[in-house]
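Consider this today:
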Amino acid sequence: MKREDTLFLEDSRDYQRMEKVLLYLAAHREYQPSLEELAQVVALSPFHFQRLFKRWVGLSPKQFMDLLTIQNAKSLLKESKSLLDVSLDLGLSGPSRLHDLFLKLEAMTPGEFKLQGKNLEIVYGFHPTRFGMCFVALTERGICALSFVEENAREVQIEALKDSWPHAKLKHDQSKTRKYLQKILLSKKDLQKNAVSLLLKGTPFQIKVWQALIQIPKGALVSYEDIANFLHKPKAVRAVASAIVHNPIAYLIPCHRVIQKVGNFGEYRWGASRKKAILGWEINQKGENVS
């Protein structure tokens, strides 16, 4: 196994333990469980649990949960409104930056949409990541699907890809998809040298929502209402929420950064605990970059 795969696998296993802890914290949010109690959830000593948690996110469990309070979320929502206003000046059609990774979005034309993937080859693979097992599918024009999956749901994910692109030729190629995933998960200095293309299949409104999402910087939070206002469609909050639910590319199109305006983190297509894990990690990364 390559060194990168070993590191990703270790991160993925760490996440599986962290997810159990986050689920436990959500179920016991009326009080703050002790370090000893949280360690028991994953069958570790308090010492090893603290070390594991800090290795994964760079914070203690208490510091991590402090980042995920409603009060902190409301503060980030307020701060992010000005960030969206600035991005309006940049427009929605040009390349956008996501934590030093350039994203190039290309939407399928109506004619291509109608063909449903005819004459298109899609290569896919499964890889461990910091936030669990990841499924990635790509074409010559870029990534067309990226999602988090449970180990026992791989076939379900492949069938979903077939449903989305019924006339495409599918090919399993771990080596090719690994190169793309490594490009996404490289160190910050290396990301500046890379560009990742995304091939999007959706309605015109969905495409606009997904384009708006990539304007949200890492460590920032916005509400569904903010996105609707950003698109000059203040009454289309439900339509925005629907487009976000149908986002085909996790993480890179950061729908996890959209929360309820009251500060609740809300649900997530790939699990509410995973959403909190990603947000907590990103907010901490943002703090480290500032300091």
Summary: The first helix runs from residue 3 to 27. DSSP finds 13 helices and nine strands in the chain.
